[in-house]
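Sample 1 of the test manifest.
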Amino acid sequence: MANSHDIVIIGGGSAGYAAARTAADRGAQVAIVDQGPLGGLCILRGCMPTKTILRTAEIAALMRRVKEFGLSPVDVTAHLEQIVDRKDRLVREFADYRIEQLRDPRYKLYQGAASFLSPNRVRIGSQEVEAKAFVIATGSVPNDISVPGLHETGYLTSDTLLDLRDRPASMVVLGGGPVALEFGQFFARIGTAVTIIQRSPHLLSHLDPDVGSALEQALREEGIVLYTGTALQRVERSGSNKRVTFHHEGREVHADGALILQALGRRPRIDGLALDKAGVAVINGRVAVDDTMRTSQPHIFAAGDVTNLYDIVHIAVQQGELAGFNALQSEGALRSFDSRLVTDVTFTEPQVATVGLSEMACRAGGIPHLAASYPFADHGKAMCRGDRHGFVKLVASPAGGKLLGAQIVGPEAGELIHELIAVMYYHGTVADLLRMPHYHPTLAEIITYPAETLAERIGLP
Ligand SMILES: Cc1cc2nc3c(=O)[nH]c(=O)nc-3n(C[C@H](O)[C@H](O)[C@H](O)COP(=O)(O)OP(=O)(O)OC[C@H]3O[C@@H](n4cnc5c(N)ncnc54)[C@H](O)[C@@H]3O)c2cc1C
Ligand SMILES: NC(=O)c1ccc[n+]([C@@H]2O[C@H](COP(=O)([O-])OP(=O)(O)OC[C@H]3O[C@@H](n4cnc5c(N)ncnc54)[C@H](O)[C@@H]3O)[C@@H](O)[C@H]2O)c1
């Protein structure tokens, strides 16, 4: 006999929990299946632990600069085990709260791995569960990229590095995305000699090249050894170290480190789900969905990293809410995901924050646009703070000045971007940014300078 529910959500992370809450709010009988550990990636091994340890690194970096601010120099020694203890305490607190939410009597929680037996039935251990609708929200795992010798030599990923309690003397980081950069800068700032090896000509290669260049300059000034435009060749042991060999500017180059961080992306976690038995199409390793989060099987929806569309947590939540709502919508219109306001923040220092369209995306899509930037090095408040790196760039429509997107590399970029998200949410223009009051002296008032340049070029009053 199978247990029966209106809807079964597979995965109780950010996307799955949002889907479950939305479906329960609509009066559905909801089951959540999670194989554990309960808590989800963001809390256990993603956003929260990394932002906790990065705070230590920010403080250490500032302490090393005290002389510049007229203070006596201080010795900064990082104790990784204490940094990890603090991270573990906070993660436990966040996870306990999420577990309490999952155990709420509004949901039936099954702890185990789900595997489809048919489009309407899953197996969880020895139990069978059936439902009229499903949401797949099983998240992602680190990519398994084949570099000769990498497996044999051994490496860590963001999933395993967070438990390291002894600071390594040196580390080679493969990749130039957010995982590589946040961890690379953290370890460099606690005293590890870090080499970052990026395949693309710039870091964060999905963004405009000036964004990557500004970050590259800042990281190099901190002492991180950074190679861009490389091709990985092989990995092997070299004495007590590990050696990565790669092509760079026509030569073969080696980088040695006590550890290798493999930060070459993540892929959807679909192994064991038996999606073929559910009739759910998988394209390039991801659960394919339309903009209502519906898969190829009309009563099965998917949300979060398993769709491999964004891998960003607030978007996983948004997609989960859509999936939970739409999966119960037997009549009436389905809701769609609006990608206009997609926002992305990398929590390095300087931070990198973007919303909407970049210049690169406008060019690729043939979208008429104008862009203007202003550097933090020339902005009063940033100068008072001693923050010299980066800029604010606005991308606007030449017809009427509607804000299409923004990129910020600089201090508190992850906070500053929210003003631009708000203006874009209300379909505002660069002229609106000029009319809105900006307190002086603040970091936020830098936004008015590129806005003014664009308003003048467009001829806005
Ligand atoms: C190091 C790192 C830092 C990050 N930092 C940020 C950040 O600062 N900001 C940001 O926006 N994003 C960040 N992210 C991305 C963010 O963490 C993810 O996009 C988000 O957590 C994905 O949520 P999800 O619900 O899709 O997946 P998950 O939270 O991974 O949830 C999936 C759940 O499914 C369960 N599961 C899997 N398979 C099965 C199965 N067969 N049966 C039952 N249960 C199953 C798992 O146990 C898990 O609980 C970071 C990611 C990493 C790796
Ligand atoms: N602050 C944040 O929001 C945050 C922080 C960490 C992670 N995340 C999310 O987690 C996901 C994983 O992050 P990530 O940095 O590992 O992935 P990513 O996909 O952003 O970056 C992967 C890097 O690996 C490189 N790469 C991939 N395949 C390669 C190959 N075969 N050879 C050489 N280089 C190769 C890419 O050029 C890129 O630099 C991302 O989608 C990201 O959005 C977000």
